[in-house]
Specification:
By secondary structure, the protein is α+β, with helices and mostly antiparallel strands. The chain is built from five helices and seven strands, in the order ααααβββββββα. It has a domain of 179 residues. Strands 1, 2, 3, 4, 5, 6 and 7 form a seven-stranded antiparallel beta sheet that branches. Strand 3 and strand 4 form a beta hairpin. Keywords: Mitochondrion, Transit peptide. It is found in: Mitochondrion.
Length: 291
């Protein structure tokens, strides 16, 4: 990534007509439903840590209460925004699909990782948000020639579960009706699985008839051929993985798009809560007028 460019101390006067034109173009794009699919992780997304990562009620009662209080506040906000999204703000009424989201996320994750490992994302490109898609393409492009990966999901160690569900509607434009709304819904799904990743090298050989054939061989990190694992067998280097997959569907002019993969998120830590609370309290300070 490049370095951030710091603004200069002098204020640059913008052309009023140009600024007005740009603002009008943005409004027109929003009204037409032309909003990007990659809007970032929605603010106040809260992911409760797993048991071993949570502050203990016994050794850190204050920290645990702070986290639980934050969770209750965020969950109430999520519930209210979801009710408003489902019943009042959008027409026709959108679908929530909360029960089916874990299965949708599970299937999308499996497709994406399998295709990414093989080096061909084309079949699922339309279901991956722009930012993540660009990152995956770049990583594929950095692979040595005639190499690939083989990703295998051996089993789920627990049932996929929705960890967060947030609906957001973009600020209304002048004259906008409930049938012209734009926004997005994001759900975070916890996926706990056992998976493995093997390096594969494509080797050209000749068969008995002299014809050239390409076969794939499993290699180690040094590129040396190793014996493949038998079908159904779990390799020794299989790893337990807990991922918080973020799936998103866009709302453009009150029409819902398909669920897409935005990326992954991290558990909410006590340190993050403290930073956010400190920021909120500093923004809430109001300077007293001079007497």
């Amino acid at each position: 990534m490049g370095r951030a460019i710091k603004p200069s101390g002098k204020k640059k006067q913008s052309n009023p007509s140009l600024a007005v034109a740009v603002a009008q173009q943005q409004k027109t794009a929003i009204r037409a439903g032309q909003i990007p699919d990659d809007i970032g992780l929605l603010p106040d997304t809260f992911i409760m840590p797993r048991g071993k990562n949570r502050p203990s009620w016994f050794s850190n009662f204050g920290g645990r209460w702070r986290m639980e209080r934050k969770r209750m506040r965020i969950r109430m906000q999520e519930l209210l925004s979801t009710i408003m999204y489902r019943f009042f703000m959008v027409r026709p009424r959108p679908r929530l699909q909360i029960r089916s989201i874990p299965g949708i996320a599970k299937d999308l994750q499996k497709q994406m990782y399998t295709l990414f490992a093989s080096g061909n994302l084309a079949p699922i490109e339309s279901r991956i948000c722009e930012g993540l898609l660009g990152s995956l393409r770049s990583r594929i492009g950095q692979r040595p020639p005639n190499t690939a990966l083989r990703w295998t999901l051996h089993k789920y160690l627990s049932r996929p579960k929705v960890a967060s569900y947030r609906a957001a509607i973009m600020p209304a434009q002048k004259g906008e009706t409930s049938s012209e709304k734009n926004g997005a819904v994001q759900a975070v799904v916890r996926i706990h699985s056992l998976q493995s990743l093997q390096h594969v090298k494509r080797v050209s050989t000749r068969d008995a008839a002299g014809h050239i054939a390409v076969r794939e061989v499993v290699v180690d990190a040094q590129g040396r051929e190793v014996a493949p694992v038998a079908e159904g067998e779990v390799p020794k280097d299989a790893k337990e993985s807990v991922e918080y997959l973020v799936v998103q569907k866009s709302l453009r002019r009150s029409r819902e798009g398909p669920w897409m993969i935005w990326g992954t998120a991290e558990e909410t830590t006590l340190e993050k809560i403290r930073r956010e609370d400190k920021k909120d309290s500093s923004q809430g300070l109001v300077a007293k007028p001079a007497s």
